[in-house]
């Protein structure tokens, strides 16, 4: 029988508007994160109830590819952090039917999450793209977009989804202004990125030099996997801290929060923290 603490993590979430709100919970969350192996056993025994679709994914269809469950708990092509995003969307929009009524821009096209969205939402009101500058392969069928210089008209979308990209941006403030520009009033930006969740300021890894057009490293280079650059990956410029919320508000978002989503019932588990942090900003 799972412990009471494990059972309490079956489906819960909290929202924070600042580090000051989050800080008092941090020690408890880190302690819960130490029990993720025990929490995972429940998911492995019962399977996953997929957010938004309500589909039950049996244990035999769940893959676990490492101890960082944020990235390694895979089912139906979705990672744990993807299902964390779906939980936020489920609360915001209520159902897949309501989500289909939104004009959506997804800043990825080759991932399991992009394939899942196209399968469930169709292509009628969903636009997917990749940043295709200096890619290793030509992708003529995929639109190229630069989040810092989007080609879309003002107020084009109701929802922008941006996963694991903020850390790679040369100018995050400009990207946030561009996203705010293409969103309609009341529209949302929802996404994930690695976070320095214990501090206010970002950890800066590299700075873009506009004169040379190259990155200036402030230490050892950190590179993350990238489906359009499988050999070289993508350079990390910064790991955002809680100041990301201030940057979003300064860019024109009237409300910005970070949700902590954890649910073994939905396969939303983390690594150091028991769950996944999801950024949610309203225009």
Kindly summarize this structure in a few lines.
With 283 residues, the protein is α+β, with helices and mostly antiparallel strands. The protein is 28% helix and 24% strand.
Strand-residue fraction?
15-25%
Q: Return the average pLDDT rounded to an integer.
A: 94
Widest beta sheet: strand line-up: 1-16-17-9-8-6-7
Helical content (DSSP H or I, runs of 4+): 25-40%
Shape descriptor reads: globular
Encode the helix/strand succession as letters.
Answer: HEHHHEEEHEHHEHEEHEEEEEEEHEE
Structural class: alpha+beta
Largest sheet: 7 strands, mixed
User: N- to C-terminal separation?
Assistant: 45 Å
Number of helices: 10
Rounded Rg: 18 Å
The total beta strand count reads 17
What are the segments in which pLDDT stays under 50 over at least 5 consecutive residues? none
Task: Label this structure with key terms.
283 residues; alpha+beta; seven-stranded mixed β-sheet; two-stranded antiparallel ribbon; 10 helices; 17 strands; globular
């Amino acid at each position: 029988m799972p412990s009471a603490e494990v059972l309490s993590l079956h489906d819960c979430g909290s929202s924070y508007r600042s580090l000051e709100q989050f800080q008092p919970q941090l020690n408890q969350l880190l302690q819960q994160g130490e029990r993720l192996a025990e929490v995972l056993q429940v998911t492995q025994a019962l399977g996953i109830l997929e957010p938004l679709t309500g589909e039950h994914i049996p244990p035999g269809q769940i893959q676990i590819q490492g101890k960082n469950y944020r990235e390694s708990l895979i089912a139906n092509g979705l990672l744990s952090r993807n299902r964390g995003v779906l939980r936020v969307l489920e609360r915001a929009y209520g159902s897949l039917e309501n989500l289909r009524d939104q004009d959506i821009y997804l800043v990825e096209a080759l991932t399991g999450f992009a394939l899942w969205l196209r399968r469930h939402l169709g292509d009628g009101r969903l636009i997917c793209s990749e940043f295709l500058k200096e890619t290793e392969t030509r992708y003529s069928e995929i639109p190229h977009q630069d989040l810092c210089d989007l080609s879309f008209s003002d107020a084009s979308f109701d929802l922008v989804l941006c996963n694991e990209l903020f850390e790679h941006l040369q100018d995050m403030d400009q990207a946030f202004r561009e996203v705010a520009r293409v969103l309609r009033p009341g529209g949302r930006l929802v996404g994930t990125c690695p976070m320095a969740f214990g501090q206010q300021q970002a950890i800066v890894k590299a700075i873009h030099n506009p004169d040379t057009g190259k990155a200036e490293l402030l230490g050892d280079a950190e590179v993350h996997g990238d489906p359009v650059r499988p050999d070289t990956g993508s350079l990390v410029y910064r790991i955002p801290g809680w100041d990301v919320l201030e940057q979003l508000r300064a860019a024109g978002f009237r409300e910005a929060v970070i949700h902590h989503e954890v649910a073994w019932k939905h396969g939303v588990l983390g690594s150091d923290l028991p769950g996944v942090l999801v950024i949610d900003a309203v225009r």
